[in-house]
Design brief:
Elements (H helix, E strand, L loop, with lengths): L2 H20 L3 H24 L1 H9 L4 H6 L3 H41 L14 H21 L9 H23 L5 H10 L1 H15 L4 H35 L4
Helix pairs in contact: 1-9, 1-10, 2-5, 2-10, 3-5, 5-6, 5-7, 5-10, 6-7, 7-9, 7-10, 9-10
Length: 254
């Protein structure tokens, strides 16, 4: 295991431990449960009104029509229903994650920035519009990639791996930026994207796995927002600490 991957795993573990520590606050629990309640009703609504339409659409388009022409109608129906439920799950998660990123994450960020990250100065643009546009653009790309990769789900194993990878990418793209928009300036954000890209993606992948667990998955969008705030602000704190040490070292005479 390379040192960079070891550091990434350590940073992810630290973010998760601090997230669990944050659960001692009733305010944080409210931030977690509000999107979970929204997720539940979104799930129910989409399951009742949407899954049949999605299944019908999948059955009427390739590759399901190709399977039916081969006489594999049972397989086409099975895959269509599996794809329909996965589409409903993805839509519910996507909607709840957007709510968490746009509405809940700023509240969590303000709560944590006043406490254990009070030493991390906010030097970013703090643009609510920019963060919202970033989240909506990530959602659009997620939907486009999800639709484009549907035929690949016929390949054994990819039907499980691709949704996880897409959701991991969406988590990183959405929550990492929103968690740092207020505190990191443009240069710091560029450095953190490069230096902490493994940690940001690994955290997104872990959240994607947790999202598929019964009941726990309802809490994941808000939990992801919380964990990315911890990961982002701790990474920024370390970056500025290293920059300060380097600056002091340059002033030390020979």
């Amino acid at each position: 295991m390379s040192q960079s991957l070891t550091d990434a795993l350590g940073l992810v573990a630290l973010a998760l431990m601090r997230s669990l520590g944050s659960l001692r606050s009733p305010v944080v629990w409210f931030y977690l449960l509000a999107p979970a309640a929204a997720a539940f009703f979104i799930w129910m609504g989409l399951a009742i009104w949407g899954v049949g339409a999605v299944v019908d659409w999948l059955l009427a388009n390739p590759p399901m029509t190709l399977l039916a022409s081969w006489g594999l109608i049972w397989l086409a129906n099975l895959l269509a229903w599996l794809g329909g439920w996965m589409a409903i799950f993805a839509a519910a998660y996507l909607t709840t994650a957007l709510l968490a990123a746009v509405l809940v994450l700023p509240l969590m960020l303000r709560h944590l920035a006043r406490g254990e990250y009070a030493d991390v100065a906010p030097l970013g643009a703090d643009s609510f519009i920019a963060a919202t546009v970033n989240s909506l653009w990530a959602a659009f790309l997620f939907i486009a990639a999800w639709l484009a990769t549907v035929p690949l789900w016929l390949i054994p194993g990819l039907g499980l791996i691709l949704p996880l990878l897409l959701m991991a990418w969406f988590n990183r793209r959405t929550f990492a930026y929103d968690a740092l928009a207020q505190h990191a300036n443009a240069g710091e954000w560029a450095l953190l994207q490069r230096e902490q890209r493994q940690a940001m993606f690994l955290l997104g992948l872990l959240m994607a796995v947790l999202a598929h667990l019964p009941f726990v998955g309802l809490l994941v969008p808000a939990l992801a927002a919380l964990a990315y705030v911890h990961l982002g602000l701790e990474s920024l704190r370390r970056l500025r600490g290293e920059a300060l040490l380097l600056g002091e070292a340059e002033r030390i005479p020979d």
